[in-house]
Amino acid sequence: MRYPTMLKKYWLIIVAAILLITVFIGGLIYFSSKPAAIAGIASNNIFYQHKTVPVIVEQEIKAALSYYPELKETPIDFVLDPHTSKSIMLSQPVIASFFKGQRYRAYVVKINPQFATTHNSVPIQKVPKDILIGWFGHELGHIKDYTTRSNAGMALFGLKYVCSDKFLMQAEQNADNYAVDHGLADYIIKTKNFILNNSDIPHEYKARIRRLYPSPQQILDMVKRLKHPEHQH
Q: How many CA atoms lie within 13 A of 211 on its CB side?
């Protein structure tokens, strides 16, 4: 009489294992990328402290990196990629580096070479310098967040990021928190105001930023909490 019960138990274990493996693999596939060596390193890229950097935004990337000295040895490829769909920039771990362990994980920051406006597009290097520094500072905040997570944690992070707007909002807030903690608040606020107050930027993009990302006022509140932690409740 126990055989059907045991069989059912084993089947539940098998199904649970399959679901866990699916979650892990799905998260890895979505929230990971190929290194620049595979994506293709063009002649207009340079190398800088374990980084691949497009020359056209070299100064802005180096400026943002200077606020994250702990990422000096972290491999990061900044790659121009016109296929970033909803974002101007997107930070992801490199899937092949997962086998090296959390400490040696590598990352990619994909950069859309064209900044789309309502009527046309602008080459990314034509965006004001301070705005790009804020953008890169935010993406490096994501990478700082990723370095604290295990491989399994990153896979789960990727799945939640695409399945839950609430989790996505928290992830974006975490990135801004890291940027503010590292002294990039002024740049982050400039970047947000540039997006939200620019009549040439598509309404849909601004609506997404308002819905999912911390507002300029929330960034100011982060700065206040950082300066006066004793006032936190």
A: 9
Q: Is this structure's pTM higher than 0.90?
A: no
pLDDT in tens, 152-199: 888 888 888 878 889 999 999 999 999 999 999 999 999 999 999 988
Give exposure, 189-208, as e/b (b: 16+ Cβ within 10 Å): bbbbebbbeeeebeeebeee
Indicate the burial class of 181 (C-beta count within 10 angstroms; 0-12, 13-18, 19 or more).
Answer: middle
Per DSSP, helices labelled H in the chain are: 2-30, 36-39, 58-65, 129-146, 151-163, 165-181, 185-196, 203-212, 216-227
Number of neighbours of residue 89 by Cβ within 10 angstroms: 18
CB 97 within 8 A of CB 103: no
Q: Is 89 helix (H, G, I), strand (E, B) or coil?
A: strand
